[in-house]
Amino acid sequence: MLENLEEIELVGLLNKIKEIKTDGWLVMQICATKIGENYELLYTFGKDYDVKHVKITVEPGVHVPSVTDIFPAAFLYENEIHDLFGIEVDGINHDYKGGLYRTATPAPFA
């Protein structure tokens, strides 16, 4: 079990990420995991020596808003999530449109 984990609804994602940025946290990673038929996206942030996590769960076919307007470096994580899991991320700055990774099958972890 992760410490400092907050589970939120998709609708509140951008407001939560803006709040975290305003409080001085930096994005460390964003990852996806398939749990049953759904996907969990885990956003991890660091500040000084502290770490916190925000998790959302989305169903297949649901579009997730990009956080690259808040954390520009997130474009790599979001492209990876799209390419490997097939999760649509809307509004990615520097969107590679499925071309960040070369895989034998599209979205191999979908």
Please describe what this structure looks like.
With 110 residues, this protein is of the alpha/beta class. The protein has a single domain (5-90), classed as NADH:ubiquinone oxidoreductase Nqo5 subunit (Beta Polymerase, domain 2). 20% of the residues lie in helices and 33% in strands. The protein has helices at residues 13-22, 74-85, and strands spanning 5-7, 26-35, 38-47, 50-58, 64-65, 89-90. The strands form 2 sheets. It has a 4-stranded mixed sheet. A two-stranded parallel ribbon has the order 5-6. The chain is globular and about 40 Å long. The model has no long low-confidence stretch (mean pLDDT 95).
Q: Major sheet: order of its strands?
A: 1-4-3-2
Instruction: Tell me the structural class.
Output: alpha/beta
Mean pLDDT: 95
Distance between the termini: 24 Å
